[in-house]
């Protein structure tokens, strides 16, 4: 399988409007063939869901999750375009399931853009120091790989849902995009707050 570069992923995202992780996965499945990857995204409805991403999502729900031990709680806001979808059971279940996921994984941010720049710079510095003894021509890729791994751990949309059986090891972004495709509306995880006793 060819190595997929960040530039190729971004180009496919610009072309289809689909989520970065969906683009990366489609390119990997298509062995780097952009046209085949585009078809895969369209077939899954992810390209269509992305077209709606610019639509105003002013309706929605807030849901909560309190862990059974009473020591961890989450409050989440998920938005959509209409009150009709906001009352839809699949939409409400999605919001509740994401709140439970947040309680279990403690992400730092909803998306890559929300990760504090200071945290990213710190991760880059650490990765650069760790790669210092590697050949110069691969250092940059090593650093980017380590930063991406860090983002996979702390960004909600990049994380695989903790209920892997129910969600077939899909990321939160893949689940969100499928819901957007199924409902025909833009679905946005706006924000969350996670509380833990003693933290």
Describe the 3D structure.
There is one protein chain. By secondary structure, the chain is α+β, with helices and mostly antiparallel strands. It has 3 domains: 6-52, Helicase, Ruva Protein, domain 3, CATH 1.10.8; 56-112 and 155-196, Tetrahydropterin Synthase, Chain A (2-Layer Sandwich); 116-153, no CATH class. It contains 10 helices and 3 strands, in the order H-H-H-H-E-E-H-H-H-H-H-H-E. It has helices at 6-16, 20-29, 34-44, 46-51, 83-86, 89-105, 117-130, 136-154, 164-167, 172-183, and strands at residues 59-66, 72-80, 188-196. The chain has a 3-stranded antiparallel beta sheet. Strand 1 (59-66) and strand 2 form a beta hairpin. The longest helix is centred in the last third of the chain and has 19 residues, at 136-154. The model has no long low-confidence stretch (mean pLDDT 86).
Radius of gyration: 18 Å
CATH superfamily of the largest domain: Elongation factor Ts, dimerisation domain
Strand content: 5-15%
Structural class: alpha+beta
Q: Give the CATH level 1 class of the largest domain.
A: Alpha Beta
Q: Major sheet, described briefly? A: 3 strands, antiparallel
Could you say which overall geometry the principal axes of the C-alpha atoms support? globular
DSSP helical segment count? 10
Distance between the termini: 43 Å
Q: Calculate the mean pLDDT score and round it.
A: 86
CATH T-level topology of the largest domain = Tetrahydropterin Synthase, Chain A
**What is the total number of structural domains?**
3
């Amino acid at each position: 399988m060819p190595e997929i570069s960040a530039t190729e992923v971004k180009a496919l995202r610009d072309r289809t409007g689909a989520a970065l992780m969906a683009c990366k996965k489609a390119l990997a499945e298509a062995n780097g063939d952009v046209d085949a990857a585009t078809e895969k995204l369209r077939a899954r409805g992810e390209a269509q869901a992305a077209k709606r991403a610019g639509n105003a999502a002013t309706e929605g729900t807030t849901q909560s999750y309190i862990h059974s031990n009473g020591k961890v709680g989450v409050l989440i806001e998920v938005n959509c375009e209409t009150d009709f979808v906001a009352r839809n059971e699949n939409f409400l279940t999605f919001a509740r399931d994401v709140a439970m996921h947040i309680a279990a994984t403690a992400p730092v941010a909803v998306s890559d853009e929300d990760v504090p720049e200071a945290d990213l710079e710190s991760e880059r510095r650490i990765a650069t120091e760790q790669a210092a003894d590697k050949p110069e021509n691969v250092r940059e890729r090593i650093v980017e790989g380590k930063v991406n791994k860090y983002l996979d751990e702390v960004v909600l949309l990049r994380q695989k849902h903790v209920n892997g059986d129910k969600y077939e090891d899909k990321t939160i972004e893949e689940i969100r995009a499928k819901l957007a495709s199924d409902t025909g509306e833009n679905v946005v995880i706006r924000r969350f707050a996670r509380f833990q006793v003693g933290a």
